[in-house]
Design brief:
Length: 324
């Protein structure tokens, strides 16, 4: 018998589930009663604070003594659901311990940036982010780790990246997309990001927990801009779950993207498509959300992850509960 279609949700903050252990338990029960089995909760947002206890990063001063991540993971466990600890991997903003100590690890990106990034390709950056994931996996009973912003944030031209490519005979200060050698830079950047995912796979295997990733629903454009070759990760067996972020008000486009992405994955990991109940690109009524979920089911996806938890209304949960 095939597995039932799964329901999950992304929560921006571990504080979103309530201000006491009892309140968290009530929130988790509200989700599991509606048929949700996965909560993906952010424990490191782009500014860089850790929303859990760790020695690796600066812990958010707002993080309370009663340890909400631990309470959430234990509550989910009691109610038959899983928690994946979500980090926005390579953005390192105003509260970053990494860039406070070593500012030269910042990515050098073109144009104005709303988010400050660390250089995703740099081994020291990758070692820091891996240590942060390791600390959450060692201290908390989470069921998985979740990768987000697992990409370069466009083209970094920091001293490290320039030197690495200069050693290969390429000057990336002048290299343009139409140059025949441009692909070498793309491949190197993709290989560096993939190397981090490989390390995360080794960590999750060591800990016996799952690995999931939020990725672009349109891989081809992000391969060049952000070095996110998630098709390669799937081919290498690095992920348990792929969550293409398919935040779109237009159901027909959701249908086309999920069918493309399922074809690329070809059964090598579970695809839970990410729908945007409320996101920067979309806002869905309960009826539109249900329609898009039905589209995913018809296409053959294994589940859905809804962005974001705070936007889910009682009407949404009741409608999802009726879908079974
Ligand atoms: Zn760089």
């Amino acid at each position: 018998m095939s597995k039932p279609f799964g329901f999950g949700t992304w929560a921006h903050r571990v504080y979103d589930f309530g201000d006491s252990p009892d309140a968290v338990d009530t929130s988790v029960e509200r989700l599991t009663d509606a048929g949700f089995s996965l909560i993906v909760v952010s424990v490191k947002n782009p500014p860089g604070y850790a929303d859990f206890q760790t020695d690796v990063a600066h812990v958010n001063p707002a993080y309370p003594d009663w340890d909400p991540l631990k309470v959430l993971a234990e509550s989910a466990d009691r109610h038959g659901a899983k928690v994946h600890a979500w980090m926005c991997v390579f953005p390192e903003g105003a509260n970053s311990a990494l860039l406070e100590k070593t500012p030269q690890l910042a990515a050098v990106l073109e144009g104005e940036r709303r988010i400050r990034w660390a250089c995703a390709c740099h081994p020291e950056v990758q070692a820091y982010e891996l240590a942060l994931y390791r600390s959450v996996a060692e201290r908390y009973p989470v069921h998985g780790l979740h990768l987000d912003y697992i990409r370069t944030g466009e083209h970094c031209r920091c001293e490290y990246c320039k030197a690495q490519m200069a050693a290969r005979g390429l000057d990336i200060t002048t290299l343009a997309g139409k140059d025949p050698a441009y692909g070498e830079w793309v491949n190197w950047r993709c290989d560096r990001v993939t190397a981090f995912v490989e390390q995360m796979r080794a960590l999750t295997r060591e800990k016996g927990i799952e690995l999931s990733a939020a990725v672009s629903a349109q891989i081809i454009s992000w391969l060049f801009s952000n070095a996110q070759d998630w098709a390669r990760w799937v081919e290498k067996g690095l992920l348990d779950f792929l969550f293409p972020m398919d935040y779109d008000n237009f159901a027909r486009r959701v249908d086309l993207k999920i069918r493309q992405n399922l074809a690329l994955v070809d059964g090598r990991c579970a695809v839970w498509d990410g729908l945007g109940k409320k996101s920067s690109n979309s806002e869905l009524t309960t009826e539109a959300l249900v329609e898009q979920v039905q589209t995913l089911k018809r296409a053959g996806a294994q589940g859905v992850v809804i962005f974001n938890y705070k936007a889910l209304t009682d009407a949404d949960l009741a409608a999802i509960g009726r879908m079974g």
